[in-house]
Amino acid sequence: MSSNPYTQDYVTNISRSGLTIYDSIEIGNPELWIPAPELQVLLNARLRDLNLSGLPLRSRSKIVKAAICDALGYPTPKIFKKTQPQFIGQMFDTYAQKSNNLQIWNEELAPTRRYVIMRVSADDRIVKVKVVTGDALAKLDRTGTLTQKYQARLICGNADSELISPRDTDVVSALIGDPQRMDLTTLQPTSQPTAGRILPISDVFEHLRPMIGVVFADRGHDQERRRGGDLHRIVCKQLGFTNYADDGQFPDIRSQLLEIKLQTSPTIDLGLVRPDSTEPVDISKINELQIRHCDVRYALFYGTTDGHTVTLTHFFLTTGKRFFYRFPQFQGKVLNKKLQIPLPRDFFD
User: Fold this and answer.
1) CA-to-CA distance for 8 and 41, rounded, in angstroms?
2) Is residue 113 within 8 Å of residue 85, measured between CB atoms?
3) Contact 278, 247 (CB under 8 A)
4) Which of 45, 223, 230, 244 could form a disulfide with 219 if both were Cys (CB 3.0 to 4.6 A apart)?
5) Which stretches within the chain are classed as H helix?
6) Which tens digit of pLDDT belongs to each residue from 207-217?
7) Are 10 and 72 in contact (CB under 8 A)?
8) What is the pTM of this model?
9) 213 with 304: CB under 8 angstroms?
10) Which residue, among 107, 147, 154, has the nearest Cα to 332 in the 3D structure?
11) Residue 180 or residue 314, greater confidence
């Protein structure tokens, strides 16, 4: 279900604009840029059960792209140009997958580009569409083949909890609400953030610091997504949400601009984007302000494991802007030309 009740408005606005898929749109444009969760809803509604049986690859690709144009309100071009990305206006590429081995040819993963990945059934019907950013895809790679990954080192200090950034960035400070009057029980964790309904970073810290000492099942490194999901569920409850939701988008708790990381080793994997980057996040502008990666709040939990349970021992909270003030960045990059990403079995769940 969409986290935005006005999802269909994007389609109407695009249709009226006269824009084509090759016309650029500013990330965060509140009328024309479709954030990933809403994009996923629209494409699932139009592409699900689309029959591709018996079609040659070129015809199949053209039919899928035409269906996407129709779903988003764009006119269908007579000829689809070879561009990178394929849909310049909404900055995404498309991939139809029967297997869980995603292959990206002749280019690197782009951190802020979206990747529309379609699950195709044995009888050649599209059964599910997932939309993720390049940075989210990078987190799924366990083979070390990605061209660029940033990493940092977590060094625990004497204190078991640290508020590294005592205040939010100027952008987020202009959008936070009064924590005494804020009720998160009516919000979804994955909904778009709105002005006046974002907790200050200091209040997030006070909500989450009691989690030190919390124990939960260790599902193992091969179940890292599920293990992180267990932590994510606890964080949602601590913040005051009545519902748990995780759509795989960045940041994890979108409505509070909060990314969550569980560490059982000192190496922090950061994917393709530096936390202090000023690149825009795939979120609609709020009161004409664009959220950037450096504005996002990062909650890092360090824990010990005996192979059966994880015990949280340390908690750190910082803005992306100040991330490297506390956690030193590893120098250098991982280089490799081959891009094959094994999608987790629960990727389309």
Assistant:
1) 10
2) yes
3) no
4) 223
5) 7-17, 36-47, 57-72, 134-138, 170-173, 201-208, 224-239, 323-326
6) 999 999 999 98
7) yes
8) 0.82
9) no
10) 147
11) 314
